[in-house]
Amino acid sequence: MNVIIFGPPGAGKGTQSDFIVKKFNLFKLSTGDLLRDEIKKKSSLGVEITSIVNSGSLVSDEIINGLIENFVSNDNYKNKIIFDGYPRNLPQAENLEKLLHKHKQNINLVIKLKVSLDTIKKRITGRIACSKCGNTYNIFFNPPKEASGCCQKQFLIKREDDNVDVASKRFETYEESTEPVIDFYNKMGLVRDVNGETDIDVIYSEISSYLNVIEGWHYKITSYKYVFYNLYPINYGPNSRN
User: Which of 185, 174, 232 is nearest to 13 (CA)?
Assistant: First the structure.
């Protein structure tokens, strides 16, 4: 199966993606990871990407789409992908559909983590990390304990861009750019809203329940042939296997 997970910065989609990858034996596709890998390889494309990033410009859709196709066309990842935060706009969504169709694949489910701006502000502005061990905390939701080894107050640091203005802008940008994408997949009946403000385990359990449905295909032997059937007859749209 192929799955997309959406959510504003700070919604926890990265955390949930990592859980899903382990349980369902998927491969996470993150455009950020693809770009960093290309830069590490120091290929001609990697050098070009480095130049673009260092200039402060955005990497073009053409480059992103090329990296995406390299990933999607790899048989090792076929129908085993979770797209983390991609596609980010409507042209990317339309291109992804073409690529998947070209390589005889489709999207089975789109998860949308719903988180309010107030919660995002707290998650982003409350983030702190220990400069010695790297452990991360949140002063609102997961503050460090007083006796937590090296994670003492004097060693806790905060990123400069973890402020209210940046959090608000990221949220607004996400809402504006992804709304057409969500509508695109809604028309296919693929989107499932998940409350991203509950406990991590609760969110993971709800997402897993949807993915279990997709994997709920079994077969039984009749007098004439094998008959495949779905234990959970829920319609996930024309691009699903139901």
Answer: 174
Q: How far is the C-alpha of 48 from the C-alpha of 73, rounded, in Å?
A: 23
In order of start, what are the domains of the chain with their CATH numbers? 3-116+164-230 (3.40.50.300), 127-161 (no CATH)
Residues serving a catalytic function are 13, 88, 127, 159, 170
Measured CA to CA, the distance from residue 114 to residue 125 in angstroms comes to 19
Q: What whole-number distance in Å separates Cα of residue 156 and Cα of residue 151?
A: 7
Query: What's the pLDDT tens digit per position in 76-85?
Result: 999 999 998 7
Instruction: Report d(CA 127, CA 159) in Å as an integer.
Output: 8
Which pTM was predicted? Answer: 0.77
Count, in order, helices (H) and strands (E) of the chain. 8, 10
Distances from the Cα of 111 to the Cα of 58, 115, 192, angstroms? 26, 13, 5
What pLDDT is recorded for position 147?
A: 62
Strand-strand pairing, 109-114 and 3-6: parallel
Locate 27 and state its tokens: 């491969």
Greater model confidence, 10 or 22: 22
